[in-house]
Write a structure and sequence with these properties.
By secondary structure, this protein is α+β, with helices and mostly antiparallel strands. The protein has a domain at about 20-125: Cupredoxins -  blue copper proteins (Immunoglobulin-like), CATH 2.60.40.420. Helices cover about 30% and strands about 15% of the residues. It has 4 helices and 7 strands; from the N terminus they run H-E-H-E-E-H-E-E-E-E-H. The strands form 2 sheets. It has a 4-stranded antiparallel β-sheet. Strand 1, helix 2 (about 40-45) and strand 2 (about 55-60) form a beta-alpha-beta unit. The longest helix is centred in the C-terminal third of the chain and has 25 residues, at about 160-185. The N and C termini lie close together (about 10 Å). Mean pLDDT is about 75; it is low at about 5-20 and about 130-188. The chain binds 2-acetamido-2-deoxy-beta-D-glucopyranose (NAG) (2 copies) and copper (II) ion.
């Protein structure tokens, strides 16, 4: 009985890990700095941020800090009224809503020198499931209209909506995982 519970718990852990949020170190090995001339805009453009992901700002707190700011303040590097300020040098921030998140270093001159970051957390409905390749490499294009607006001609089976198809992929993966979990269960 105990073994069964352990196996079930192990299966649950495996399934939770499938949806585990990512942790991104800002600037990768360079961290959050002005001296490495990191292009944080370019850095952010190589990532896809989802709700629940964590970003980690690592820097020397003697020389830098992190301010979360509005878009207007980001554009003008105006540090007079940050939304929030982080100063530990090892600041991890979990992304809890979609849209743009603006940050810069509040030390005078650093934002102007490029120590600024615009993170775009994608909307949950526009996120692509694990196994699906990106629809388009052009991230600036608007998302396609909902598949429910597609009306196939009468009598002709229309192509299955991609959203439904991807859900069934995920469902199939979950079923396969559950089956393998139960098989493992009965092996004891
Ligand atoms: C910075 O923003 C504050 C209020 O948000 C504003 O009063 C101030 O004029 C701005 N400073 C500059 C230099 O734009
Ligand atoms: C920095 O924060 C991360 C995540 O919170 C933690 O895993 C790591 O141990 C911390 N590093 C230091 C040097 O404190
Ligand atoms: Cu700085």
């Amino acid at each position: 009985m105990t073994v069964r519970i352990v196996v079930v718990l192990a299966c649950m852990v495996v399934m939770l890990r499938l949806s585990e949020a990512a942790v991104y170190r800002i600037g990768d090995s360079a961290g959050w700095t002005t001296i490495a001339n990191v292009d944080y805009k370019l850095w952010a453009s190589t990532k896809t941020f989802h709700i629940g992901d964590t970003v980690l700002f690592q820097y020397n707190p003697q020389f830098h800090n992190v301010m979360r700011v509005t878009h207007a303040m980001y554009r003008s590097c105006n540090n007079s009224k940050p939304i929030s300020t982080f100063t530990t040098g090892n600041d991890s921030i979990t992304l809890t809503n979609h849209g743009h998140h603006f940050f810069f270093c509040g030390v005078p001159g650093h934002c102007q020198a490029g120590q600024k970051l615009d993170l775009n957390v994608i909307h949950p409905t526009s996120s692509t499931p694990l196994s699906d390749p990106p629809i388009s490499s052009d991230s600036s294009s608007p998302s396609s209209p909902p598949s429910t607006t597609t009306i196939p001609a009468a009598g002709v089976p229309g192509p299955s909506p991609s959203h439904a198809a991807s859900i069934s992929h995920v469902a199939a993966a979950i079923v396969a995982l559950l089956v393998s979990c139960f098989v493992a269960n009965f092996a004891y």
